[in-house]
Amino acid sequence: MSNRVYIFDTTLRDGEQSPGCSMTVPEKLRMARKLVELGVDILEAGFPIASDGDYEAVDAISREYPWVQVAALARSCTLDVERAASSLQNAKRPRIHTFIATSPIHLKWKLKKTQQQVLDEAVAAVELARRHVDDVEFSAEDGARTEPEFLEKISKAVVAAGARTVNIPDTVGYSTPDEYGALIGAVVKALADCAVVSVHCHDDLGLAVANSIAAVQAGARQIECTVNGIGERAGNCSLEEVVMAMKTRNDRYPFKTGIQTEHLYSASQLLSSIITFGPQPNKAIVGRNAFAHEAGIHQDGYIKEKTTYEIIDPKSVGVPEGKLVLGKHSGRHALKQRCEQLGFSLTKEELDVVYHRFTALADCKKGILDDQIAGIVQESQRARAAVTVE
User: Among 37, 46, 171, 217, which one is least packed by beta carbons within 10 Å?
Assistant: First the structure.
């Protein structure tokens, strides 16, 4: 089995569905440009039946980037599939992504249908989609909570109907890595080499990235994810996290993607500027504190050798460099380095005086700015000069 993992980006579809993330067509085009630069394999541009804006976005992205594989989402019904096909008519590499729920709880309460009805509708939708495009993906919504026997049955049926990719989503973020990996492994075995098995994990329990990696280890070769992990409720598998986990720990996860990782940070920043919020400061890879160090012990090690506390080169994800944040936890080494960067060369005695004044101020503040540090040094120097004159 190939170790190539395909990145299916759904920032513009599932990501956009989360509160505060709605995008206009021009905004989707701006973000799509960055996703293309980032190197995503499949770009899910929207859910055409949902709104005219989504339809227009799929069409506009298909026109603007004819060489890119563009996907449009559709429920497993004629109206949705036809609408998706129409939105993709200008795409050179179109994919229709059709889905229907398969879990007992969804069948009973949402669809009020039998397994056979769902299977028939899934097959009919795939067959219809194949009449419009060569590349069809089928998703078993809430697949992680579906009986394994039925999941294998419907997966085989849609592949026989023409689906090239079968996606088994953990729609509500309920699964765990060992459980999800076993489920995906069974589907991979059932389909053999007849289709690519894909995964789409939500982060309700904080396990979306772990579940996606477990699925890849079990044979899945497509990961559906979003920039900054945005998406319904707690969000989706974070594109930057899952890609960098496989790149950084390639010894444990010997897989490769086509992502140009040096564009990860700028993609995160662009998305943040388009929607109403950015990632939390301690967000892995792209958070503003991801490469920041404040504790004195950490800063001392970092100054001597960066790899003591940085497992990723910041430049590899598009961050210019790591940074030392000076606060009450900082030590003398970091303060001395910052003073030198500000143009002050201090003796050991001078540094001791500055350090004590610095920590006294830091106890009252969340962080110390460079001009405040400079002020402390200058004040200390004035006081020392006055004593000398006397």
Answer: 37
